[in-house]
């Protein structure tokens, strides 16, 4: 049997979903990369299952989703921030974190559908200094966003909170997407078990990861335990569908894509 290639993001918010995955799925290879690159590699057949930005699930239109696992919020997210020199209605140019796709599309949805403005968009390279960007606003995601201060930008809009205040729905940032024709087998169980272990060990993960990130361990613990949610229940699916409909209206995703789930995860390993 060929080895299953699993792609994940090397951010703090991913750590609970890949806890002990090397032990739980010794028949698989775990590959860490940026969210945008994971989506490209899954599309190119270099990965079999990957934790990809949800907008890429809809753009591909051929993947299935591992059930009941996501990275989502029901309010603030802390790790997806639009720093701005001006209020929403005055934004005319935005630099978008090159690692982002779902959050880049969410920025456009909020700007165009909620605030009625259509700014000029440009990419922000991962190695570019965000506080020196020549734009009204800059979108940062992941650990980079949590560390950023950007004192020259008076406004710091948390996009998870902005979405929730507008819609009252959770926002889903990423899901495990399975490439068409791939049978995960026992790896499906391993992904579910990794999530269970990761949530149970949030404090240990926070203590381990915080020093390298330059963040307080207590803050990291609250982020993993209280800010993020890792389920994909009915409310999360409702938020996901609403986001997709708005993205379609703006031409950011093709129409006609539904949520298709991979074979149900086994309750126990075979």
Question: How would you characterize this protein structure?
Answer:
Helices cover 38% and strands 23% of the residues. The chain has 270 residues and is of the alpha/beta class. The strands form two sheets. Strands 2-1-3-10-4-11 form a six-stranded mixed β-sheet. α4 packs across α6. The radius of gyration is 18 Å and the shape is globular.
Shape: globular
Q: How much strand?
A: 15-25%
At the fourth CATH level, what is the homologous superfamily of the largest domain? Periplasmic binding protein-like II
Query: What is the typical, i.e. mean, pLDDT?
Result: 93
Radius of gyration from the alpha-carbon trace, in angstroms: 18 Å
The CATH class of the largest domain turns out to be Alpha Beta
Q: Number of domains in the coordinates?
A: 2
CATH topology of the largest domain: D-Maltodextrin-Binding Protein, domain 2
How far from one another are the termini? 16 Å
| Total beta-strand segments | 11
Order of helices and strands: EHEHEHEEEHEEHEHEHHHEH
CATH 2nd-level architecture of the largest domain: 3-Layer(aba) Sandwich
Main pleated-sheet profile: 6 strands, mixed
**Spans where pLDDT lies below 50 across 5 or more residues:** 264-270
Number of helices: 10
Give helix % range. Answer: 25-40%
């Amino acid at each position: 049997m060929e080895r299953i290639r699993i792609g994940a993001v090397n951010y703090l918010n991913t750590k609970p979903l890949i806890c002990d995955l090397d032990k739980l799925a010794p028949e698989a290879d775990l590959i860490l990369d940026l969210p945008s690159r994971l989506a490209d590699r899954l599309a190119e057949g270099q990965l079999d299952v990957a934790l990809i930005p949800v907008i890429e699930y809809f753009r591909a239109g051929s993947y299935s989703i591992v059930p009941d696992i996501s990275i989502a919020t029901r309010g603030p997210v802390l790790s997806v921030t639009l720093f701005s020199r001006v209020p929403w209605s005055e934004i005319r140019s935005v630099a978008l974190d090159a690692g982002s796709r779902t959050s880049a599309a969410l920025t456009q949805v909020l700007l165009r559908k909620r605030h009625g403005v259509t700014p000029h968009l440009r990419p922000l390279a991962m190695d570019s200094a965000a506080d020196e960007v020549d734009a009204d606003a800059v979108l940062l995601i992941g650990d980079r966003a949590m560390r950023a201060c950007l004192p020259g930008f008076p406004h710091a809009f948390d996009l998870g909170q902005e979405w929730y205040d507008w819609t009252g729905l959770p926002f889903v940032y990423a899901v495990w997407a399975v490439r068409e024709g791939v049978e995960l087998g026992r790896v499906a169980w391993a992904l579910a078990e990794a999530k269970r272990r990761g949530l149970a060990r949030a404090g240990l993960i926070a203590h381990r990861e915080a020093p390298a990130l330059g963040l307080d361990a207590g803050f990291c613990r609250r982020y993993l335990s209280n800010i993020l949610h890792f389920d994909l229940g009915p409310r999360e699916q409702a938020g996901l569908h609403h986001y997709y409909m708005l993205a379609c209206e703006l031409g950011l995703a093709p129409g006609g894509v539904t949520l298709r789930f991979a074979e149900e995860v086994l309750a126990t390993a075979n």
